[in-house]
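Quick one:
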Amino acid sequence: MRTLWWVTLKAAFAYFACVFAVGFVLGPIRELWLIPRVGRVPALLIEGTLMVGVSVFFARVALRHFAVPKGTATRITVGAVAFGLLQAAEMLLAFWVRHQNPTQYLAAFGSAPGAIGLLAQLAFGAVPVVVVRDRRQDFAKPTG
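Output:
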């Protein structure tokens, strides 16, 4: 049982770290390049769509690499822990970069841009549950 929890936590952290790293790179690109060209909401929709795709990729990698069982409860735990880590990191960044306290950070979800961001973050948390295994495995030749 302890091994399953350890595997689950490692997968959740790896999934979070990889997706967060990509978002950390894309955030300044969105703010400095994309928003001036297309506007805030379209830029967030573009980035959010891209981040969901990134989430699917890294969820598959983390779940396969750490051999996370296919059970729904385990996958929910991976997504929930990763989502919690993401919220903590986002809140720290909001404090550090925008000087927002936790109440201000949460209140920002009430705006259209904030709602788009929250939906992308919720999708990030749900991806480990809904991601399907790599279909290439279905066509692999049996060994032996």
